[in-house]
Design goal:
This protein is of the alpha+beta class. The chain has four helices and five strands, in the order H-H-H-E-E-E-E-E-H.
Amino acid sequence: IEQGNLYNQFKLDEPWDSDNNKKLLAKMPTTFAPPDSQAFKDHETFYQAFVGKGTVFERPGLRYPADIPDGTSNTIMFVEAAKAVPWTKPDDVAFDQGKLLPKVGGLSKGGFMVSLCDASVRFFPLTIKEDNLRTWITRNGGEVNEDPDK
């Protein structure tokens, strides 16, 4: 997102909340939170990744797009989570296929925003069926995604 200079200031060999890296919280790009929200003032973001088995962030080393056989336009990369976290903290939305889905949607009325792996952004209603949302979260389930509005 054209933030190479900011990225180069991070010390990746240190924790996200080290003295050096904590100074960078105040430099949060506006992309990560709506400018009028309290989260932006607190340097927090609602935009997080689903992590866990079957997700795009299942493990390091996944290849793009080869390891997304369900298709980049059918797979969620980032989601508007229910709670904000410090934008530099590696705290994402845990996904486990055998458990209830975590809460999503913290900003948008009646739904939540997602960024798909093809870089498109879509609005999903809070009324989306859980089974349908699972097909959008997984990268390799082989399911056919239904329209989220159904």
